[in-house]
Amino acid sequence: MITVIIIVGIALTIAISLILLYNGMVNGKNMVDEAWSGISVQLKRRHDLIPSLVSAVKGYMTHEQDTLTKIAELRAQAVSASSSGSLSSIANAENQLMGALRSLFAVSENYPDLRASENFMQLQEQLALLEDEIQLSRRYYNGTARDQNNRVLQFPGNLVARAFGFGKIEYFELADPAEATVPEVKF
């Protein structure tokens, strides 16, 4: 009788542990999905802002059509990548788009009338705020991905993860490691 109680107690402990591990992984996956949703909302806002920015700049930058055309193409690629669902293709497309926008703002320095335009300045400020929000969303996403990866890769969670099909989550990282370097400032 005592042996049966011990076996039932062990089985019950194992069952409860498995349930808690599984529920923790489901919770972690939901947190990752929520974090990704936050990133996609911010990226959509950036995609919606870019046409306004390009149209505000067009009148001033007649000699910079290549830059404007490239931004329009990269925006279309980023929107297309967002619907593909592949995190690496989304990150790559968004990083290219951000690089093109940076070059637009660098080129805008050559156009004092454009720099004085209130509309351009407001759009530039909105884009800067959006970039900050995207960075915050990225950090939150990567944090939830890290937590989920810990659950999925650590023992005994890895056994439960394998049994129920939970996998490692990709991080939303910079495509170009050179973007992470600190720029050199010369006076």
Can you characterise this structure?
With 187 residues, this protein is an all-alpha fold. The chain has a single domain (2-168), classed as de novo design (two linked rop proteins), CATH 1.20.1440. The chain has 6 helices and no strands. The chain has helices spanning 2-58, 65-84, 87-108, 112-116, 118-153, 157-164. α1 packs antiparallel against α2 (65-84), α1 (2-58) runs antiparallel to α5 (118-153) and α2 (65-84) packs antiparallel against α3 (87-108). The chain is rod-shaped and about 90 Å long. The chain starts with a helix and ends in a 23-residue tail after the last helix.
Topology diagram in text:
Layout: H1 2-58, H2 65-84, H3 87-108, H4 112-116, H5 118-153, H6 157-164
Helix pairs in contact: 1-2, 1-5, 1-6, 2-3
- Which blocks of ≥5 consecutive residues have pLDDT under 50? 180-187
Write down the overall mean pLDDT.
85
CATH class term: Mainly Alpha
Overall domain count: 1
Largest sheet: none
Output the CATH topology.
de novo design (two linked rop proteins)
Class by helix and strand content?
mainly alpha
How much β-strand is present in the residues?
under 5%
Separation, N- and C-terminal Cα atoms: 84 Å
Gyration radius, in Å: 24 Å
Count of DSSP-assigned helices: 6
Series of H and E elements:
HHHHHH
Number of DSSP-assigned strands: 0
Corresponding CATH superfamily: LemA-like domain
* Share of residues in helices: over 70%
CATH second-level architecture: Up-down Bundle
